[in-house]
Structures are given as C-alpha cells and as structure tokens.
C-alpha cells in the first residue's frame, strides 16, 4: 500500500473545515495529522464539530508553523484572508504543498487585492503566479503545483455557469448579470448579528451589492478563459437555508441558438468533468447539497440567455473542490472520496 | 355611526383569505357576513384557520350566488382563475361590488388571457375595461368602481419597483430583468408535491422561467403607465420561507443619475402613498412581513440600475391591497385597518 | 380626550422591545417618549428594527435615569437581569411606574435569586413583595401597583397550562414534567455561536436541563396558587423557528376525569380571561404567533394527564403580557391594543 | 471478487427509498437491479430523486412480482403497510430474502396489528415469528434470516435510549414518558395539507397523542428485552426541519445512580455497537443528520432520569439500519457503506 499523504488543516473550526475533515476521513490516501485553532486547551475536534464524535481522536491545537511543517506533506489553509498569506510562504519554504481556501492568492495582482480587501499584500510575487484551483478549467495547470488558490463559492458557481457559453461565443461578454443566492453557512461561523437565526430566518435580502469580493475573481477568471474583457454585475442574496448557492445568470446571446444547442455546448465543454451535471429540468440547490456536483442548465427567453448554476457552497464551493485539487496534485482519480 | 359594509369572501380557505379575514375583523367599517367554501359541513372558520379561534363564530359555507348577494354589499372573490369569471357577472348583476383577487380581470383582452391561462374568457367585454387595483398607480380610477381586479403579488412587487424610474425616464424600457424570490405561501394551500415541506425547505429554485402568468400583467401595466412598450424578463424563484417577495430588478439607465437622485425620484413619485417606504439600506423581506408596506431602494453599479422591491405576498401582495382598494372604493382613509 | 400615558422603554434593541414598540404605537392611551440603548449615536429606532421604518421618528438614546424620569410616567424595563435592579429603585423614587421584563423581581427572595442567577440582589426588600405580572392569576393584585414583575416566557406557558388542574385538584403536584420547545428569538439578540442560523437551523436540542432559570419561577408561582409544594422538572429545547413556545406537560391524575371534564375545568378557570383559548384540537405554536393568546388543551392517556400550552414567546410571553399589565395598571380594557 | 447481491427496492419514490438508493450505490457488495413504482412511464430514478442525477441509469418500473424475483436476491420493501404483506409471501416463496421497511411484520401478533392499523393481517403466521431488525439488540437473530422487520424511526430512537437502563434495572418500567420530536420527512412524500411547507414551517405541534402506531412496537420490544411489562406514554411532535428525531425520555430511577454511572451503563451495554455514540454533552439532532449514528446521553434531575436519544429518521431510523441488517444477513462488516 502506498504511503498516505500527511495532511494538516489550518483553521479547523469553521464550517468548510468541518466538511473538509469529513471528506479527508474517508480519503484512502490522506492521513489527517494536524488540525489547528487559535483557541487554547486543545479541544477534541468533536467538541468543535459534534457530528465528528467517534470518528477521530484528533484535537484542535494551537500549533507553531514549524510543528505544522513537521507533521504534514500538504496543508489545507482555511484561515481568513490576510492570515493565510502570513503563514503560507513559511509553509512552502518548509517543503509543504498548500491548498489555500482563503482569497489571498486568487487575484491577478496586489493592486486589485488591495482595492477589494483593503490590505497590502505581503507576498506579492506569488500573487498572479498562483494557479486558480478550479479543476474544470485549469486541471492541467493544477497538477504538480506547490500552491493552489482554491476558488470562492460564489465564484465557482458563477464561472462554471458562464464559461462554456462565453468561451464558445454564444453570449456577450458585456452586460452579464449574476443574481446569486447563498445559504447562511457561506457567511462563516463567527457570531454576528446578521447571521443570527432570528435575523436571517424567514427572510431573503441582497447584500454587498456592487462590492462583493468575489466580483474581481469572476471578472479575472472569465476574462482569462474567454480572452474577452468581462465585468459582471454580481448581486448576492442571503437566503434562509444552511447550504447551497444558486446563480441565476442573465446574459445576451451573441448568436441565435436554441436551448438544446446551448445545453449541448455546455455538455461538450464539460465532457471530461465528473462533477458537472448538465441538467434539462430547472435545478434546485437541494439536489446538490452534500455533494461535489455543480448542476447547470440554460433557458432562452425574451432576448436573454438565462443560465442556472447551483452547488453546495461548503463542498463544491469550498472543501470538495479543495480535495478535488488534492486529487489532481497527487494524481489520484479526480473523484476519490468525493462521490458518496 | 354609519352603517357597516356587509362583506363576503368567496373561497375562504386559502392563505390570502385567512389574512383577509384577519384584516376585516379589525376594520371598523366592514362586517363579515359570509365565507364560502366548496367543502361541505359548514366548518367554523377557526377549524380552517386555527389562528382565528375565538375571534369569530363565522362558518365556511357552501353558499349559492343568490344567497351571497343577499348577504353582502361587497364580495372579495378569492377563487381560482376561471372560477372567478364564472360567478362575478351574476354578483355584479345582483348589485354587489366585487374585488377579485384572481387573475380573471387583470389583463387587457381575451387573447392574451387565453394565451397565458389556457382558457377562453367567458366575460370578455369586462376584460380590459376593469380597473387594475394597484392603488399607488390607479387610485383615482378605483374610486367608485363596481369591479376591481386586485393585482398579483409578483406583479405588485415588480411594478411598484419599476414604475417611477421607468415613467420618469431614468431607465430603458428594453432589457429589464426581474429576478423574483417568493415565500412558499404564494403557491397556495392545495397539497402538491412541490410545496411539501421536505421538498422546498433548505432549497431555492427557479420555476416557470419565461412562462409565469404574472409576466403579461407586468408588461401591460408598465406599458400603460410609462407609455412605452415594455416586455420584461421575469424569473421567479421558490424560496424557503413562509412569506415575502423580493424582486431584484436589473435595468439599464437612460440617463446618468446618482443613487440619491434616483431615490429622490422614487420618493417623489410615491409622495402621497402611505404604503411605499423608500429606504436607503438594502431591505429584507422580513421587515415587511405582516405589513402592507412595499419597501423599495435602488443601487447603481457597473452600468446597471438595480432596484430592490419587497413586500408580504399575502398582505400587500394580496389581501392588504384588497382592503386598500376597499377603502378607496368606499372613501375610507386609505390606511384603515392596514397599519397595526 | 384623556391625557396619554408617557412611556419609556429601557433596552429597546432586543426582539421583545421591538414587539413592544409595535404594540404601543397602536395603543390609544400610550405615548412613547423615550427608547434607550447603550449604543452611542442616537440611531433612529427603524435602524435597529427595520420593520418600524416610517412608523415613528423616535431614536434610541443613551439617556440618564433623571432624563428617563422626566420624560415618562411609566417605564417598561427590558434590560438584562442585574441591570434592571440597578435602575428600578431610582425610577420608582422618581415617581415612575415600572413594568420590569427582566427576572429581577420575579422570585420570592434574595436567596433563591442568588442561587439561580449567581448575583447578590441589590434591592432585596422589594423582592418577594412585587406582584408577579401574570394577569390570568393575579389581575387584582396588579391593579394600582408601582412595580410589576413581568413573567418569563416559558414560565407563563407552563403556569397557564398547569394552574387550573393543579388548583382544582385534578393532577398531582408531584412528578410534573414540562417538556418545552421554544423558537430561537427567546435566546435574545446578542450574537452567540449557539444562535447562529447554521447552528440551530435544521436541528432540535435540549439545553439547560435541570438548570434553566425559569424553573424556580414556575415552582414558586404554582406553589403559591395551588397551596401545594410544587417542584417541576423543566426541560427546554431550542427549536428551529423564530417564535413560539409549546409546553408539553406530563402529570399524574389525582382523580379520574375525562378529557372533556378536564377541558371544562380549564375553561371555567379562565372564563374571564380574554387571552386564554381552551381548544379541543391539538394546537400548533403557529396559530398563536403574532397574537397575545395562550392556547391550551388536554389529553388523557395511559395513566397520564397531558397538557399542551402554547403562545408567542415575544408577545404573550413578553411584550403582549407587559401591555396587558399596563392596561390593568391604568384600568384600560384588558385587550386594548392586543387584539388585531 | 465475490459475486454481488442483486438487490431490488419496492416503492422507490419516497424519501427513505431515496436514501437507501444512495447508500446501496456505494455499497461494494450490492448491485441495484430493480426499483419499482406504481407510476407508469418508467421514469429514470433521477427524475424522482434529482440528487441522483448522473449516479445511475436505473429506472423506476412498474414490475410484476415474478419479474422482481427474477432480478433480485434480496428485496428492500419500502411499500406502505398493508401493501407489504400483500407481496412479501410471494417474494419469499420465490427465494428472495426480504427486509421490510413497513410495519407489517414488526408486531407480535395479528390482534395488536389489527387494533393499531385497522387491517386484518393477511400473513398472520409470520407475524410474531419475524425478527425485529434492530441490530443493537438482535444482531444474532438477524443473521441468516429470510425476512427482517425493519424498525420504525421513532421506535429505534426510543428503544435505543431506554433499553440499557431498563434492562440493567436502573429505571422503573412504569410511567415512562417519551416526548419525541421528528422532522417532517418522517411524514412521507405524499402531498397532504399537514405537511405543506406553509403549514408546518415556523411551528411545532403534537400529533397522534396516545394513538401513534409506533407505540405498540416500543412496548413490545422493551417488554421483550427487559422481561418486564412496559407500556410507555409516547407523544410525537412535528418539528420544522427536514430530518432528525429527538426523543426526550422521562423515567423514574429504580436505584440511586449518578449521571456518570448511568452513562457508563449505557456505554457498556453498547460496547460492540459501532453506531451508538454515548455522548456527555446534550446532543443536537443535527450532529446525527446524514449519518447512521444514534447519539444518547442521560441526565438526573429532581427525581427523574432523563434520557436524550437522537438520530436521522431516514438513515438510522430507516434506510441506514436496513443496510445494517443487510450487512448482518450476508455477514459483511456491519459498517459497510454506512460510515462516510
């Protein structure tokens, strides 16, 4: 039996980290060796994520970077932006591979990073030279890399929906509207008024209109793959459900095509992508919850092409795609541990 | 003390009818005299709507039209489309005023009705000659009428959001996208697979894309008030909450204007409308639930004007506006029984 | 027209305070004159409770006690326990009447207070001499008082369910089990991990088993009204809904009686109580949401008497009963502003 | 590689069947060969359960019993009660093994069946001679059987919580109260008014008090394993969540024991049971959702022993335990396909 890869997770208390642990516990080639937290007391991870009770004896520890390096071959970095770039250079120097779930290495340069995140980037040379870990678009670039910038949840939903028709010339690059709806887990696990049950239950509301930080990611990646300048209007909505993102995307056709032709274009674009399901019926976020699938369909109506794309924000939108990247990095079958 | 208006509700078992009963029970000038159902057995209305226990002794009865006419001065008709137009002519002949909550008298003509509802209209001469009961736009026409076509819930949300900027020339009439999200009560109270708790809970999904029957209503009313030909793209989504509709509306500016200018245009347009709240912060559907308010705001971003409009689909979207029409009809203060 | 009572609310940012403001805005004899908060900046109350937008121009102010006394005849104190007893003596000295929504004056003495709340009571002479503001049991004592201890939400639900059969000798005082389920708003509006949407949505869980602070209130009030020593087992559960409390109460019969006889005992006990609805069908919390009703029924099965009692925790469980007490204090009809 | 077991599912359109298909798709020793429905048209199973899109090409077919026998070695029968006993004798005669998820073979005799289900049992000789498929109690009896009566969801939750302390003599067999809370999926997938989203969302309510059909199952199994006559009071509540059952069980101690001692008794009782997690903290249903675990803890307060037991009603309460039985029948490791 081949040696397993020793794996650490930095920032193991959030929702995405909880899902990541579950996936890695069933991964035949990964061995969890470190889970970190800034909390003291080394609580068992099942105290933080009670669903893991009885699954593992791992503790959440406040570990130094050298200790993390000692214990692991690969690090999933689930820290907040800013905190990620503070530790990743040292991890890389120490010989670890890193899959970064934060936004710190996703953008093309320190200028746009500073504009959207309000921080000076402290590792600017890597920024713009780090592969964007969306396997459906960049699997060849991902293989063999040391650092992968795992994409944002809204970003993946939006890009996966738009890339085929944009790249194949079926929709205009101008005037694209993305109306996105996300479950509340996307807002993280830090107590805040806005994510209290009694605030967001029984209510839907737009937020960060025109200012959401996933916007430049969508722009840059779509511009890169389509070779056109893309600037989307991205409007997220907080939706009263635990998980799931639906992007309803409104675009203008560049040429006449029926729904069936457009579906066929998308199917062909993703023909080797095991986690894209091009569906004919209008999808529900629920049909993707708990899975690593992204379900996509398209409609044509009144001069618009309307693309619907949905996925589980914690899995395909975060931890599932991170493991998909892990599989690509180590040349395991792409679906390992990801279809249950 | 002036004589109260005797009021009947036809089709009293649905969610909108339940709200209507509650509003009328507190209305100082209305006296509920008949509630109808096709169910037999004359169940007390509190058996159908348990929240009404102890509030009234009224029963839901299977009444003939002559009996309804005998008991009432005004009839709220909360029957399904098709059933409404089958009974309304007789009610009018019998001397009743009618506020019809169905879609039967909302459209401009029998052709468009047949196209969207798949039924031949049986009262075509009244169709197109019936006032559309959206008081913010047509209050003068409503006064004194015998028959009022109460608007649809998605329709009101959309039209109220769009009318000011469209009529005042700030947005293009072409290419308007309405991405609407509705709570499940909007789908009615008849048991159906799609509205079972375990189907729609924890999920958001688009439906009736390009085919929703509120589309022609929006088109016709906006075309009428703006004197432009309007054809909107209307995309509804089933949202996991009891009540509330949010319309996120994407339009193109016709002239340059700041958010503050646009807000001012909307405020001015509705300056005499007690149920429109032009808000600066992004609204949540929850802040309108249980009220007859429609909350509206606007943003400008990346070449789009984005209007957010939200309301309670059962109140401002159905029963509240019906009572607002009732107040206008009988010249009571417009807010009577509607602000609690 | 009689002069209105000038009313202040201390601690106006929580959920109960939000409901209280709504009720008082429609109260014909109350004039809101002060809303307090420890937040600076005097935000408009509609910024804190967006549903109040357009309803009032009141601000939430950081007011001194003398200023509160100057502005108000009666103060609703919606502060946390501890904070209430720190300000109430001065309010009373200043001539204000006080309805205290905290737990500070509910118990019989400083010893039990210290045991359950972990605080030394700083106003011990009033403790045990303050009327318990449950109008269905103590309306005569409430009238004309200066200070009223408004009851807890679980407490009212439990006591209202148990009092009739206990006082009339139909159930044993020993071995009473109360299995209570509350919506999340009962846990307050301060951001905490446990009340985040993604923690408590899609989950039910017991908490504070054997240690919930409403336990001694239930014991003391039931012991007082039944003249028996009562010690209940009280087990609360956090339930994934905004509002509503259901108490499922298991007791042993003291004498043989049918369900119908027991219902009749309860009906008789509450025959002059406009907010108690003794129902025959099993109630749902939803039928009481938004109302000041408490719905009660009873079943007999397998040697147990099972009482179900439910209400809206923010209204009949907090702000509605507070206004009911206000009405009694000032001799207004008990239902004023409370049935809409 | 050993031959896989050919497996059919009768009644494949419900929620439990959907989960069962998912588990069997990942089972290394099971091969799904038939899914039945009474619907015509042979819809792909992914049309019925959209989450299965892309996972299998199986169709839901309206198959004759001989055809089912031809295709399968083992049949999971997920039909309604009554329909199960109409087909199972023929399946057994045809050489199939059967795991019946209905209630038809769970009880001890036709009398009690007729009393609670209102039907004459048509296969009475098997009734009372069929093993009750709760592996934690009856694993030795399950092995090698042809027919297994898979337990009810409330039943498993209740029995697993009670059996240890009852069998080991720590609690009285008399006066046990089970207050159970279930997610709405437990009520099935047939459209009914009571399980519409807008009926049960934002509400908790008791139902079937004293009459729920899982009551005799609990009585019989607990009486059998404890050798005492047990008659529990069982009170179910419909809870606004998709999945999960929590039983809060109130019993009287038979002898003095601390919480830690009681936990130890339960741990010991289940020491070889991989799906029982005896936890110290109060559990939430959410921590078991999506798993085959049953989480149990215990508290002592005011003369009561309070046991909390929770699980996922569709998995450990239905389909997971069915596969656990399958594993036992064929001597596969008990956890095969059940821990992911």
What labels would you give this structure?
seven-stranded parallel beta sheet; homotetramer; 340 residues; alpha/beta; seven-stranded mixed beta sheet; Rossmann fold; Dihydrodipicolinate Reductase, domain 2; 2 domains
| Total strand segments of chain A | 14
Give a short account of the largest sheet of chain A. 7 strands, parallel
Residue runs with pLDDT of under 50 for 5 or more positions of chain A: none
Mean pLDDT of chain A: 97
Classified in CATH, the superfamily of the largest domain in chain A is Dihydrodipicolinate Reductase, domain 2
- CATH fold-type name of the largest domain in chain A: Dihydrodipicolinate Reductase, domain 2
Structural class of chain A: alpha/beta
Give the ordered list of helices and strands of chain A.
Answer: EHEHEHEHEHEHEHEHEHEEHEEEH
Using only C-alpha atoms, the radius of gyration of chain A works out to: 19 Å
Strand content of chain A: 15-25%
Regarding quaternary structure, how should these chains be classified? homotetramer
CATH architecture of the largest domain in chain A: 2-Layer Sandwich
């Amino acid at each position: 039996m081949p040696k397993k890869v020793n794996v650490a997770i930095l920032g193991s208390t959030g929702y995405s980290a909880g899902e990541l642990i579950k996936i890695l516990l069933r991964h035949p080639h990964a061995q969890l060796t470190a889970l970190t937290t800034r909390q003291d007391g080394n609580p068992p991870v099942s105290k933080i994520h009670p669903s893991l009770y009885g699954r593992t004896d791992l503790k959440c520890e406040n570990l130094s970077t050298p200790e993390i390096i000692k214990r692991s071959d690969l690090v999933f970095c689930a820290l907040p932006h800013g905190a990620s770039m503070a530790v990743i250079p040292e991890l890389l120097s120490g010989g670890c591979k890193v899959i970064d779930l934060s936004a710190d290495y996703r953008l093309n340069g320190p200028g746009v990073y500073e504009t959207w995140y309000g921080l000076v980037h402290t590792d600017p040379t890597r920024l713009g030279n780090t592969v964007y870990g969306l396997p459906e678009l960049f699997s060849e670039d991902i293989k063999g890399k040391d650092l992968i910038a795992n994409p944002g949840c809204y970003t993946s939903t939006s890009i996966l929906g738009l890339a085929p028709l944009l790249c194949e010339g079926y929709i205009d690059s101008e005037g694209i509207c993305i109306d996105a709806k996300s479950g509340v887990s996307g807002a993280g696990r830090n107590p805040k008024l806005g994510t209290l049950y009694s605030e967001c239950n029984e209510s839907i509301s737009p937020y960060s209109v025109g200012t959401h930080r996933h916007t430049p990611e969508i722009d840059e990646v779509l511009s890169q793959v389509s070779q056109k300048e893309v600037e989307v209007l991205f409007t997220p909505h907080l939706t009263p459900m635990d998980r799931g993102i639906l992007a309803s995307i409104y675009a203008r056709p560049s040429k006449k095509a029926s729904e069936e032709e457009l579906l066929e274009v998308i199917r062909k674009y993703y023909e080797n992508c095991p986690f894209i399901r091009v569906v004919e019926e209008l999808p529900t976020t629920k049909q993707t919850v708990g899975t690593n699938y992204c379900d996509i369909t398209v409609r044509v109506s009144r001069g618009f092409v309307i693309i619907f794309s949905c996925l589980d924000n914690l899995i395909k939108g975060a931890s599932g795609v991170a493991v998909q990247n892990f599989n690509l990095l180590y040349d395991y079958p792409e679906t390992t541990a990801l279809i249950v």
